[in-house]
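Issue: ligand-bound run for alpha-L-arabinofuranose - logging full I/O for the record.

Environment: standard queue, default settings, no custom constraints.

Inputs:
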Amino acid sequence: MKAELLLDKYAKISKVDPRIYGSFIEHLGRAVYDGIYQPNHPHADKDGFNVEVIDLVKKLNVPIIRYPGGNFVSGFNWEDSVGPKDKRPRRLDLAWQSIETNQFGLHEFEKWTKKVNSSTMMAVNMGTRGIDAARHLVEYCNFPKGTAYSDWRRKNGAEEPFKIKTWCVGNEMDGPWQIGHKTAQEYGRAANETSKAMKLVDGSIETIVCGSSALDMPTFGSWESTVLDESYENVDYLSLHRYYGNPENDTPNYLAKGKDLDEFISGVISICDSIKARKHSTKQINLSLDEWNVWYHSKEHDAKNKPWQIAPHLLEDIYNFEDALLVGSLLITILKHADRVKIACLAQLVNVIAPIMTNEEGEAWAQSIFYPFMQVSNYGRGTVLTPIQRSETYSSKDFIDVPYLDSIAVINDDENVMTVFALNRSLDEPIDFHINAGDYEFAELKDATQFAGYGMKETNEDGKMKIIANNNVSVSDNGADVKLMPASWNTIRINLK
Ligand code: AHR
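Outputs:
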């Protein structure tokens, strides 16, 4: 089958905000303890951080990491997690029915994010707490010195403020499972006042107000409208969360789920803009897709979890090849909305629905989804072009007109390089893929790679998966031809003249 992507230099979507390649670490399962923090592990550094994990996270090049939750944050007292470790209390973590030892907290996370060349996106507790705890946390983290909370931070070893810029005002407050779940009206008002107070402490911060935890929430739409009605002028971003799975084992339908994400994002943008119009506001609210990923493999195991353990094995999805293809497609979908999605967090980063896994003694390892994420995060920086593409389509259980080709181009002006990410959704036919250079002039191929040839259910537990070179590429001044294997993820990088 043949398919084409036309590059139109006048059809630019937006410059990419690198924060769309963010991720997430929650105090959940083995994300922190036995994950990023393993003081007794043979590969731990002097701070107790697993150095192999640090190296793998650096490869993913994540500029921002959401912390400390997630559902966990809605019952979290941040004060428990600072100061001398032997004075920190053990607490019940009600969200995940676990024991939280608080041996890893705010200062440790700040130190760790620096080691992985990233930064913190902090969430505050809007479940059991609210405005007072939130303003004190901003003061603790960001105020230079001379006040109770800033001096407490200094006493705890951080002379310089953490300067955390991006803050989530709670987590999934629309969900009945959330501790302190609220109606849209209750949450909207509380979020408005909390965000206002946080910004009074530090006027340079940006805040994210909670939108819907999923597109299929019964309150989707009305939740966003009410919350934004209450908080529009005091917040900067609206969140959305979305997870996917293939429990019915229908791969063509599964690989089309980028269409669902596309609809969700478009719907949320429309809601933001309708409130903007209704309020006669000049301010635009952008989106923070601060939880997205595949999550379903571990659900059966987790239903049998024994409560009140420290760092239990929870949400440890082992990802297969088709999950990696979907993750690639979801990244393309996020890029298609680069004008409005300014933050996105792959949820999560280590052990918990994660691209990186650890075990008690051995080496940390990369899951299948690690590879497309690494490529898009590293090469998908610059300006995104509107994907004008021609491709045959198919229909599946939930979707019609699904193009076999899912592709997008990003132009990196600093390096004068064009990168195309392309997924072939066909399980049995290759695609003769033509990249039409349009007004661009191609110089030569920089590199072309493919992630292909694996069974849909194959995982990377044996560490054998790799991205390999695609030698089936020819480049001329005005275009390139690339063979895309059936069910493949492809990255093509071309130097521009
Ligand atoms: O990422 C796992 C959980 O999913 C988070 O704690 C919660 O916010 C969401 O429901």
